[in-house]
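Collaborator request, handled under Task 6.
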Amino acid sequence: MLRTIRAKSCKEVAVLAILALLPIGAFSQAASGGSAPAQAKFVVPIAQIDRTYLKNEVTVQGTITAYKASWRETAPHSFVLMDGTGNLRIAIWPNVWNKIPFNDKLREGQEVTARVTVAEFRGALEGHLDKADQIWLGLAKPLSTMTSQGGTAAQTTTMSVTVTDAPPIEWKDSIAEALDAAKKSNKEIIVFFANPDSDNGRFVEEKLFGDPRIRQAVAQKYVAVKIDMRTNADLARQLQAFRAGTVGFYRSNGQPKRPHLVPRTVEELLESLK
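Structure tokens returned to the collaborator:
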């Protein structure tokens, strides 16, 4: 249902149709008592994690090594997670650790999948587990699909088609323009909430929308519009986009197609563009 917003003209009403938006959420978290849920399938190879991920959540998986127990209330339990592309220290503070029902299994040799916040400690990147229901026993996908360079294997079934080039995305400057173009072309609409001053905004724009596979998928099916959150903060709030790098998906009539997404991998965004 559309939000009730006062409009001065019929065209404004049409433009405001796009304001019907579902809550933001890249993942719906499941209770973590067993194997990794389907929502955790968008796994980022550890070797790909760099400082553009700082303060952002990412899903990683691998085998636990070098477990160290907390030695005081303010010190975390920790282990090193290895996925075949690299390794990442995972820190879990006692208040979270004690709520994990299977914490006694988090020892050397155990395979796990976890949703962690990327942080920096003494110059090195690490992952912080902030919630007990964001770690699962087992792998979301076979480790054999990871390459030694840190990417998913191009020969796997999920990446069977290699796209080496695609036209740049033709971003529209306004929602009204995007709605007109979508109506004429019978395409759907994708809205990118950008902010060049934000690490996350630059990451999504450069690394994800810059990927030829994403550019091809957008060109085939979508009219793309970019909203600069620095100069259109009120519009972003109306659209319930509160974080740079958020992507919204709409049908050609401006009605929402699915919840907002803050993508972290090309594969995750490709899946959402289908």
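The cover message to the collaborator said: "The chain has two domains: 10-26+161-273, 38-150. The chain has seven helices and eleven strands. Please let us know whether this matches your experimental observations."
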